[in-house]
């Protein structure tokens, strides 16, 4: 996961900085988008915790795990973006912590999308065994497996960092980007091979589940059609997530065309890679799902339906008093 361009572009960044007005505008845009998306996501989490129909359903448990993961990833990405403009350099230890957590959550997203697609496949194509296979306990076990698998690539880089760098390196200050911290691993040509294999497996999973559900949808099942459309949106979200692995190449290509627009290219790619994919999750389940939408509407607008509270007559009965006219 990269938060800026490579070493060759870093030299240009050192010499070129945004004006105060431009930097302030970019900060406002990024922070406003981050707060807006996290507000919607936090409302989804609150709705999930308040209604048992959600926290006993593996489908919604996987979804809310994706939402929490996106909130953490988006917050860290926004923090790194703002700090890169305000203080420019960070302590290596603090930078390493932020990068590891951000990369960790980024690896987690494709795995979560694939697991959600498998759950929909079981619900549509093997409905009689869905309750037996997709239990709440097994769902939380799979979530734990996600975190374990997602930790393998970045922990390898962390161990390599501690083995190759002196302790004094962690007390220095650097521009916080992956290439500046994990130098020995990012210079390797084979560093991304495990990630590409991992993403290929996720794509094959999405493709297989989509085709299976599509054939099931020919039987005119409404649930099958909804599941098929949901997996299509999963694919779109995964495609946007994949920009994380290729955006440095895209930035280098754009710099060849617009050599004087490095800062604008970095900002645009940041919004596309880090923010937009986090905006899709609430839409896929929070707004498209009828059950979630019914419970979410009141919380999202900071109001609760009056029907959820007893009326005045009921209150008087509960208190043991009779309602009398004044």
Descriptive terms for the model:
326 residues, disordered C terminus, two-stranded antiparallel sheet, globular, mainly alpha
Large-scale geometry: globular
- Tally of alpha and pi helices: 14
Structural class comes to mainly alpha
| Uncertain parts | 1-15, 304-326
Number of strands: 2
Question: Helix content range of the residues, please?
Answer: over 70%
- The H/E string reads HHHHEHHHEHHHHHHH
Largest sheet: 2 strands, antiparallel
- The share of residues in extended strands comes to under 5%
Radius of gyration: 23 Å
Instruction: State the distance separating the first and last CA atoms.
Output: 69 Å
The average pLDDT score comes to 76
Biggest sheet: strand arrangement: 1-2
Describe this protein's structure.
There is one protein chain. With 326 residues, the chain is an all-alpha fold. It has 14 helices and two strands; from the N terminus they run H-H-H-H-E-H-H-H-E-H-H-H-H-H-H-H. The protein has a two-stranded antiparallel ribbon. The longest helix is centred in the C-terminal third of the chain and has 36 residues.
